[in-house]
Amino acid sequence: MSFRAISLFVLGLAFLTGCSSQQPNPEAKAAPQSAPKAPEKMSLLPGMPPVEDPSDIYSADHAGNLSPVVKDYPSRVYVPNSGSNTVDIIDPATYKIIGHFAVGHQPQHVVPSWDLKHLWVLNDLGDSVTEIDPVTGKKGQTLPVEDPYNMYFTPDGKFAIVVAEARKRLDFRDAQTMKLVDSLPVNCAGVDHMDFTADGRFFIASCEFSATLLKVDVANRKVVGTLALEKGGMPQDVKTSPDGKVFYVADMMANGIYLIEPDSFTRIGFIPTGKGTHGLYVSRDSKVLYISNRGEGSITVLDLATRQPVAKWQIPHGGSPDMGGVSADGKVLWLSGRYNAEVYAFDTTDGKLLARIKVGKGPHGLCVYPQPGRYSLGHTGVFR
User: Fold this and answer.
1) In whole angstroms, what is the distance from residue 306 CA to residue 29 CA?
2) First to last CA, the chain
3) Exposure of 111 by Cβ count < 10 A (0-12 exposed, 13-18 middle, 19+ buried)?
4) Measured between alpha carbons, how far is 2 from 9 in angstroms, rounded to an integer?
5) Phi and psi torsions of 61, nearest 5°
6) CB proximity list for 89: less than 8 A, separation 6 or greater
């Protein structure tokens, strides 16, 4: 979150110092999925690449499916340090920092471009984005972009959606030049994260300080629904299920994830996971969801078929796991340690902590790159 909203953020962190929080009711436990039906033909957003497997929208993201565009890129972990105004680059083979450079004020996320050819560092308070060449790891051009807290791309590749959190806007910019094309004001505070429906026609966005979700029509760039969550909640990351039938929404004050049915835009369940539920990452085989619980230093593993937690990994001696991604081979989960100036690498087979690497102050939306997939929808690496 941006420093502009620091007062609200400080209030939201009260639970970290021992304050209790209530779990939302009425849904304490989500029901398992029913038997899958034959997939219906989708009416896709015009210009969007075809969905290869309607039962698994992440099928192109499985291990080994590197695009020809990225197959020769060196494997790296790019870490934006919001408090140090720098980026650290980690070699995942050695767990060593091999690159470091300064960027604009308060870098929040490192985002792969839709065409996979660039990485963008979002300098939130610097009102700019800085390019990284994924071939060399070198810093490139810096472009003026207002309030770039987060950034996503429309599935057709036409627009970068800059999440201007402090200004309560979603800015649609040309995906190549970053020139502003259209701006969508939103009637909520702290718009932060989003993900797209399987057909690409809508996205659901979280509003951290309003405890609400928005549903937006992509083609018409229009808010078509608002959904209130529990009072006092702080929704964070959003992730679509492999079959596209449910959206998972992390809530760091509710200490778990909401289940949202996207067509009716209604809440259908809640699953407790741990204090400070924050980031959501699908495994390379599309079978489990990794959920970072920032407030208690743990990772919950959710079985996506049964919608039940099957494991919890505790960071030895504590930590603050936040945002990140899964390695290209699916063997390692990488997460930033937001309040510990460190990065964590977990073995996805058993949750063992493989490494904790000291980085700059306030590491946030780190990007593991390259990853499998045909195109990027933004954030720290949401691929299809």
Assistant:
1) 11
2) 26
3) buried
4) 9
5) -95, 5
6) 76, 77, 78, 79, 97, 98, 99, 100, 137
Q: If one looks up domain 3-15+55-369 in CATH, what number appears?
A: 2.130.10.10
Please check whether residue 255 is in contact with residue 28, taking contact to mean a CB–CB distance below 8 angstroms.
no
DSSP reduced 3-state for 6: helix
Q: How many CB atoms lie within 10 A of CB 52?
A: 13
How far is Cα 287 from Cα 84, in angstroms, rounded to an integer?
36
Burial class (CB in 10 A: 0-12, 13-18, 19+), 148: buried
- Cβ neighbours of residue 279 under 8 Å, at least 6 residues apart? 236, 237, 250, 290, 291, 292, 294, 321, 322, 323, 324, 335
Pick from 314, 302, 351, 315: which is nearest to 331 by CA?
Answer: 351
Q: Do 384 and 58 form a contact (C-beta atoms < 8 A)?
A: yes
Residue 1 is predicted with a pLDDT of 52
Write the Ramachandran bin of 127: left for phi over 0, alpha for psi from -120 to 50, otherwise beta.
left
The residue type found at 221 is R
Q: What's the CA gap between 145 and 32, in Å, rounded? A: 43
pTM of the model: 0.90
DSSP-based three-state secondary structure for 60: helix
Span 228-273, pLDDT tens digits? 999 999 999 999 999 999 999 999 999 999 999 999 999 999 999 9
- Residue 144 CB-density burial (10 A; 0-12 exposed, 13-18 middle, 19+ buried): exposed
